[in-house]
Amino acid sequence: MNQTSKLLQPRLALVLSSKSPWRSALITLFVLQMWLLILYRDTALSMVHIWARSDTFAHAFLVLPISLWLIWRQRVTLLRVRPESENSPLLFAGCIGIMWLLGSLASVNALTQLALVALLVLVVPAVLGWAVTRIILFPLGFLFFSVPLGEFLMPQLMDWTAKVTVFSLRLSGIPVYQEGLQFFISSGHWSVVEACSGIRYLIASVTVGTLFSYLSYTSTKRRILFVLVSILVPVIANWMRAYLIVLLGHLSGNKLAAGVDHLVYGWVFFGVVIFSMFIIGARWFEPEVLPSSQSSSSSSIQPLGQIKPLSAACIFALLVSLPPGALLAYKSTGVRGVAALNAPQALASSWEIQRSVLPSFKPDYKNPTTEMNQIYAHKDQSVGLYLGVYQRQTQDRKLISFSNSLVASQDAQWNQFERGQQAISAGDSYLNVTTAGLIKSPSPGAAAQRLLVWKFYWIGGLVTSNSYLAKALAVYRRLIGYDDDSVVIVIYTQDDQTGLAAQVLDKFMQDNYAAVNSLLTSVVNN
């Protein structure tokens, strides 16, 4: 039996005794955390479902065991501190409960999941006190890596990967023609998809790198520096990986680095780079300063006074019960039906339905309550109009979502090659719309087809192109007693790159926005 075990035995026996404040505090802590998981079970289960179905966040299954192990490593220090219940965490718990409620009303998974983990962490200072919390601050903070967060970075990472890969190929003397996330070289056609973004490498590197810095260093400066390196290295490594895979495929006539090999080579390269990063980081290893045996000797053990953390625990349990109760009360109110969104045969100024005028296109918006996608023509001008209505939004059916876009990343036909903003007139008012250029993969012997697309959101009669503002408006309407009826409006027309396409869409908006607004008002107010 080693010296540490001998020193721990008296204190562990004291913890297990019926009069120990540690025993009562730990029981209270466990009960409160179970209460939280019961109250917020839908949020907790949504996290587990994401871990199970997504390779990007599969590591989250290991976060809790690692955190518990890190806490166990501090047991010698912890047993020298007396747990004291605190009242100050109650204020934070109330604020975080409101954050969870707003996240639920807005159907923002990341916000509700962050709130749940924050509440689970706050239980510790509420029951055990800040002195105990400071000792295990990193293990508690490490729990936030269980939140499946980071996919919002994917579009930017994909864009950077495409630009760096094309730039590197040109430096290598290989001619490249780029259309957004797709590029063409003499040996074939390549496309940057979600798996090429490097988000998996980045999240894995940051998680492991943060743990490594905590275990390997004692100075805050070195820990922060290594975490920054663990962010930068996987991003650059992913750029190198993408370039080398394309180069290898080009030089081998696409016999290598294709299909499954594409992913295998990527992970092998990433593993080598990250392993090298840890080997280099280990050169500056700082040994951990362990508690002295004198301060941990059995002779220094003093009887710990009995405390009563039940008051703070009961208030905490009550506070965290209010947000789920408020959400349940809101959901119990009557649900209005939604009228079918039937496309009118004609809009203003003789814009009438026509078929087979434009290339087949439908925005990739999932699970709308009701939708329509119709083509209208006036003289020699043709415009497609898509309306996607979302009512009583939930986690599975919401307008503002990473999974909703004009073009899916795996779309075999359409590719988005540009994006921007433009101020337009809508009836008597002006608004900014999101603009996008789409190109359809041509069939052999056929010319490429292009679309100019304008998109904006309609929330209870208010319009915006900003996704965050649209989400905030929907939440605000819920808070003041209205439904969160939200609509995405997409108009599109064929683009011949002469600048006339923008004029066609502008003409359509001036002529028909009032009619579209009236149609949506009648649908959501049904």
Short précis:
With about 525 residues, the protein is an alpha+beta fold. It has 16 helices and 11 strands.
Can you characterise this structure?
The chain is 50% helix and 15% strand. It is of the alpha+beta class and 526 residues long. It has three domains: 3-149 and 310-331, no CATH class; 158-197 and 219-284, no CATH class; 348-524. A hairpin with a 2-residue loop joins strand 2 and strand 3 (188-191). The radius of gyration is 29 Å and the shape is flat. Mean pLDDT is 82; it is low at 293-307.
Unreliable spans are 293-307
H/E element sequence: HHHHHHHHHHEEEHHHHEEEEEEEHEH
Radius of gyration: 29 Å
Q: Which term fits the overall shape?
A: flat
Count of runs of 4 or more consecutive helical residues: 16
Largest sheet: 8 strands, antiparallel
Count structural domains. 3
Structural class designation: alpha+beta
Extended strand count: 11
How far do the termini sit from each other?
A: 76 Å
Strand fraction: 15-25%
Mean pLDDT: 82
Helix content: 40-55%
List keywords for this structure.
526 residues; alpha+beta; 8-stranded antiparallel beta sheet; 50% helix; flat; 16 helices
